[in-house]
């Protein structure tokens, strides 16, 4: 569904701070981004959020030439993770995001990776359009907008949960802090259990997606009684799916990059949407089911084609994966 969301003319962006986090440009060992991507990121914020404050949260010895920001935060690089559960750069992303959010004084904030950029500001209006929540399901004070690119609904034909993209988060600053300002991983009372579970599938295609490990940690921290501890990527039953969907409907808005105003790095761009990702219409169906049954959903050509591809592709993908890989459970 392609909608043209537009921010109200009288809205200013002075209440928003953009935390741009991560390495500046490319660096040794990570050279797959186009040159000048961080400068493009910062310039795009000036264009599309002209009154917003920009905080650049990065590492020492970065080339900051010609970069336009309001506040610079330099953190000491914590290095790669070696805990047996988190992705190798988990603490790097957490630390740079936390350091940036610590400096935010505005009521709204954006967490934006330094290798993405803006193409509009429609997400500001989108965040206010779906305010209803299911009774006793609201965790955040307002909904948080997350982009649909790499927000996985399935993997190898199997339904999965807790696999949101880490590119872009927009919402109340207090809500973003709930997500990103977590204690060190080993300080969680569930960390050892996650490590032990991860060791059983280490080196297999059943390991959690990187995005699942992030979400597993922050969601278990803020909703401990309803969040399961995943043993592997596909460790999900119908009850878990419903719990996840109800959380999404009342707390998150999944928006498509092209209609929310998010620009994607080249390696993330696709001619057609991946069959394993959520679309905004997928999310809208959840919102209608759990929060507001008066919502009108217009299924457009892109959504029909997406659902048709899922109908044929996902069962085939599931079968191929099953033939190639024996389950460890």
Q: How would you concisely characterize the structure shown here?
A:
The protein is of the alpha/beta class and 329 residues long.
Structure description:
- With 329 residues, the chain is an alpha/beta fold.
- It has ten helices and eleven strands.
- The strands form three sheets. The protein has a seven-stranded mixed β-sheet. The chain has a two-stranded antiparallel ribbon with strand order 5-11.
- α1 (37-48) links the parallel β1 and β2 (53-58).
- α7 crosses α9.
- The radius of gyration is 19 Å and the shape is globular.
- Mean pLDDT is 91; it is low at 1-10.
List keywords for this structure.
329 residues, alpha/beta, seven-stranded mixed beta sheet, globular, disordered N terminus, LPS biosynthesis protein WavE
Which SSEs are present, and which pair or pack?
Layout: E1 16-21, H1 37-48, E2 53-58, E3 71-74, H2 90-102, E4 108-113, E5 117-118, H3 122-126, E6 144-147, E7 154-155, E8 158-159, E9 168-172, H4 173-180, H5 191-199, H6 210-222, H7 238-251, E10 252-255, H8 257-260, E11 262-263, H9 280-290, H10 301-324
Parallel strand pairs: 1-2, 1-4, 2-3, 6-10
Antiparallel strand pairs: 4-9, 5-11, 6-9, 7-8
Helix pairs in contact: 2-4, 7-9
Tertiary shape: globular
Number of domains: 1
Number of strands: 11
Give the uncertain stretches in residue-range form.
1-10
Radius of gyration: 19 Å
Helix content: 25-40%
Termini separation comes to 39 Å
Strand order of the largest sheet: 3-2-1-4-9-6-10
């Amino acid at each position: 569904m392609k909608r043209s969301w537009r921010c109200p003319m009288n809205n200013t962006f002075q209440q928003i701070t953009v935390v741009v986090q991560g390495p500046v440009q490319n660096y040794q060992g990570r050279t797959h981004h186009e040159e000048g991507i961080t400068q493009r990121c910062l310039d795009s914020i000036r264009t599309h959020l002209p009154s917003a404050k920009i905080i650049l949260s990065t590492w020492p010895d970065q080339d900051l030439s010609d970069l336009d920001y309001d506040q610079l935060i330099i953190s000491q690089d914590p290095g790669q993770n070696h805990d047996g559960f988190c992705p190798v750069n988990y603490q790097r992303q957490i630390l740079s995001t936390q350091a940036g959010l610590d400096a935010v004084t505005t009521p709204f904030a954006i967490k934006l990776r330094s290798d993405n950029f803006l193409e509009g500001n429609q997400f500001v209006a989108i965040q206010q359009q779906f305010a209803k929540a299911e009774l006793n399901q609201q965790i955040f004070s307002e909904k948080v907008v997350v982009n649909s690119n790499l927000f996985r609904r399935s993997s190898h034909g199997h339904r999965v949960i807790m696999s949101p993209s880490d590119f872009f988060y927009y919402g109340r600053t207090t809500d973003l802090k709930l997500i990103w300002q977590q204690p060190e991983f080993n300080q969680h009372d569930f960390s050892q259990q996650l490590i032990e579970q991860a060791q059983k599938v280490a080196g297999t295609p059943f390991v959690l997606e990187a995005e699942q490990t992030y979400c597993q940690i922050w969601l278990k921290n803020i909703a401990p009684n309803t969040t399961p501890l995943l043993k592997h990527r596909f460790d999900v039953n119908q009850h878990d799916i419903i719990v996840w969907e109800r959380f999404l409907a009342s707390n998150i808005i999944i928006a498509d990059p092209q209609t929310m105003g998010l620009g994607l790095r080249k390696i993330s761009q696709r001619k057609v949407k991946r069959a394993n990702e959520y679309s905004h219409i997928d999310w809208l169906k959840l919102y209608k089911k759990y929060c507001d049954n008066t919502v009108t959903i217009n299924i457009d050509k892109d959504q029909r084609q997406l659902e048709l591809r899922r109908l044929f592709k996902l069962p085939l993908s599931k079968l191929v994966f099953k033939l190639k890989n024996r389950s460890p459970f």
